[in-house]
Amino acid sequence: MEDVNLADLPAFADSLYKELMRGHEKRFEARIKSVKRASDELSTVASRLEVSIRNAWGSLDKTTSEQGLRLVQTIKEITHQISNQSIPSDYNGLESLHKTCVEASDKIIITIRKYVPKLYKAMKTEIASLNSSLTKLEATINEFGTALDDSPGSDIESLRADIHILMQKVHALNELVAENGQIRKTLVSSVNEEKALLHEQETLLSHAEFRELILLEDALRSKSEAIEQFLQPLVKALKKYERIMSDDKSIDRRVLIRLVEDPRAAVSDTDLQTLLRIFNALNGALSRGDLGIEERKRKRAEETILSIKQGDLEQLRIEQVETQNRINKTNDQLQTTGLLRKKEELTEAITRTQSKTAQLNTELAENEKRIEALTGTISKEKLLIVNEITKLSGKSIKIRTEPSLKADTERPS
User: Fold this and answer.
1) What is the largest CA-CA distance in the chain?
2) Which sign, positive or negative, has the C-alpha torsion 264, 265, 266, 272?
3) C-alpha to C-alpha distance for 98 and 36, rounded to whole angstroms
């Protein structure tokens, strides 16, 4: 088995062409020469016909004479074109030459069919000689075509085309792999940048003011959750009361709705008297049985309202507001020292870097899919080319891929 480098395949196909076409090329040359001789002979016959037409001025009318001379001129022009064709050195050129000859022959036939009927009676001998020469030209052109068909030239050209397509795909694969290598380098840089920014953020947040802010924000969340939990027994009742309440202007419906949807914010942003009016009205509806709530849940709701009246909600509210005020004060201090702005800038930079990293990972994954698909296609096409070569020449070869860029699926961490 012969090893052939992938990059050497075009040269291998060229050598295979020379080897397999050596005997055929001589036959092609002989057939082309026969075509040219037949073409020259047809041109000579056409010249004799021209002389006969010019000498027959008394037996031919003007129109027939002109048509005959036009026929002769057309034949001479076409046969001159055939006779002056050079012999191509490649199979595609030979195929093109054969096509040119066939088209030329067809054109002569059409021209003869158009003009000969009017000349035939006066010049039977000349026309018979013309037809005989044309038949000979057609035969030599057909023999040339048969010689082409009997050769492996078409199969070798098909092999060359397949090799060309394979080389294009290999080039595209290498470009993809190179592109992935560049993406991976950029990705490593982006990941390292993100790590550096996160470390800088961690260092910044280690300042006492930020540590205090984090504790205060945790405390605020706990107090907000406590308020939400405290008001939980009233949620169902508040929903039902909002649906049945009259247009009592003493009740702020917007606050009522907000108590249902966002109790934390409602308690924080609403003054106590407005809240108490709502809870008193709700208590009245519960006492009258207007809301249709089962006994156990009604009692829990009434107990919660009683607790509110005793100041438990206000205490939670005061603690929440105090904590929020401390947060605001700490934020003001951080703003004054520039630390808060620095934190915001770091957060924005981290977000941008993370977005860039995610985009690069997506591009990398998409390229890897294309690389995998293209690698599979190339493997199949290499096998087909090996089979083509074996069928053409009987040679058993192995296409060796030279070490090149390889897809590295390892991701930066």
Assistant:
1) 141
2) positive
3) 12
**236 with 341, same domain?**
yes
CA pseudo-torsion sign 339, 341, 344, 346: negative
Q: Is 316 in the same domain as 213?
A: yes
Measured distance CA(263)–CA(257) in Å, rounded = 9
Mean pLDDT of 87-112: 92
Residues 6+ apart with CB under 8 A from 234: 259, 279, 282, 301, 304, 305
Long-range contacts of 362-367 (CB under 8 A, 24+ apart): 363/183, 364/180, 364/183, 364/184, 364/187, 364/411, 367/176, 367/179, 367/180, 367/183
Rounded-to-integer distance, Cα 305 and Cα 241, Å: 14
pLDDT at residue 369 is higher than 60 = yes
Of the candidates 129, 144, 117, 109, the one whose C-alpha atom is nearest the C-alpha of residue 32 is 144
Distance CA 197, CA 187 (A): 15
Specify the pLDDT at position 411. 57
Give the DSSP letter string of 208-276. Answer: HHHHHHHHHHHHHHHHHHHHHHHHGGGHHHHHHHHHH----TTS-HHHHHHHHH-HHHHHHHS-HHHHH
pLDDT category of residue 67 using cuts at 50, 70 and 90: confident
Domain residues for the domain of 129 are 20-151
Q: Which residue among 151, 172, 187 closes a domain?
A: 151
Flag whether the pTM goes above 0.70.
no
| Amino acid of residue 351 | T
Half-sphere exposure of 222 toward its Cβ, with a 13 Å CA cutoff?
8
- Would you say residue 361 has pLDDT above 80? yes
Residue 293's CB: how many other CB atoms inside 10 A? 18
Q: What pLDDT score does 170 carry?
A: 93
Percent of the chain with pLDDT over 90: 55
**Single-letter amino acid, residue 141:** I
Within a domain: residue 46? yes
Q: Are 16 and 156 in contact (CB under 8 A)?
A: yes
Is 288 domain-assigned?
A: yes
Give the separation between CA 372 and CA 402, rounded to whole angstroms. 18
For residue 27, what are the contacts with CB-CB under 8 A and spacing of at least 6?
Answer: 147, 151
Joined tokens for residue 206: 């280690």
CB 68 within 8 A of CB 115: yes
Burial class (CB in 10 A: 0-12, 13-18, 19+), 72: buried
Structural domain includes residue 368: no
CA separation for the pair 287, 279 (Å, rounded): 12
